[in-house]
Amino acid sequence: MGWSLIGRLLRAQPAEPGESVSDTELLARYVRTGDQSAFELLVWRHAVMVAGVCRRIIPDEHLAEDAFQAAFLVLARKAGSVRGGNLAGWLYRVARRVAHRARCQTMTWSRRETPLTAEPVQEPARPPFESRELLAILD
Q: Looking at residues 8-22, what average pLDDT do you find?
C-alpha cells in the first residue's frame, strides 16, 4: 500500500509557472498576507524532500505521513520566524526532528503496551445462595 495523501500530492504536482519566485519571497507573501497559494507552492517544492526524510526515519508509512504533515504544520505556524534564505535546510531539520520524536514516542509506547495474545479466561460466576433461591422461586 502506498502513501495515499502524499502519493497523490506528489503525482498531481503541477508545472510551476512561478519557479522564478524564490522561497524567501513566497514565505514572505504567506507571512504578510496569509497567501495560501504561496504556501501551497512551497509545499509542492519541498514535499519530495520532506517525505523522503520522514520515510527514511520512520518505517511505518502512516506515522511517516503524519510526520510529513506535522513538518508543514510547523512551517505554517512558525513561518515568520524562519531566518535566512535556506528554507529547504530549515524544513529538513524540522522534518528530522519531528520524525525522530514520532519514532521515539512510538517505541516508548510499544515498550509500555503489550499486545493481548489471548482473551483472559473467566470462570462463570456462581450465584450466591440467596440468588439460587430467588431463581427457584422465579422458575
A: 61
